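Re: that chain you flagged

S.,

Sorry for the slow reply, it's been a week of failed gels. I finally had a moment to sit down with the sequence you sent. For the record, here it is as I used it:
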Amino acid sequence: MTVTLDKTAGSTQSWTERTRELLTLLNLHYVGVTVLALVNVYLLIQIGFAWQAATSQDASALAQQTAAMKSAEAAGRPLQGLDDKLKVATADADRFYERRLPYAYSEVLAELGALTKKDGVKLTRVQYAEAPVLVGGVGPLTEMRMDASLSGDYRPLVLFINGLERDKMFFLITGVTLVGQQSGTVGVRLRLTTYLRSPVGMESTQKTVGVASDTAVAAADGGETR
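Prediction finished late last night. Pasting the structure tokens below so you have them in one place:
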């Protein structure tokens, strides 16, 4: 009887230890599964953050590229049709040269004489000086500076100066000085500038004919000759 109880007790103890071992292994399995699940969750969270950051960076980069492209388009807009604009500007410059710039002293003297006669002003003296400008360029010019003395009533003198500024021939007034007034007559010293261009076509012959008279007038007025 005692032997039977000992066997039964030993069998029960062995079963209990085996059960404990199984429970311990099961617990370890559960723990392992739990750890793996947590690791997977952590990795998923990290992947989500990385995807969100990448999406945000792509959107920011796309916005920057779009802004840069718009800036480049805005900067390049004035250059569109530049060839046509250059042609128009060149044609305008040629017209200005031919229509508003004189090619000889005689043209300038004739225009000044016509304006003084029109407004009833007396041109008493003119001195000339010249200097080349735009040398070596497409359209070389000669700067013609004039120091003129005029006399007349106040209103005709004002009309004469306004006429110079509006004249078809280009005149740039650089100075006006009142030099005196006597018996209703006002004296004015006027400094102005124009530019002589190269003659075109038949103008070359006309310029050659007028050189002698231009030189004589300039010398008589105390100016420099060409």
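What I noticed first: The longest strand covers residues 122-133.

Talk soon,
D.
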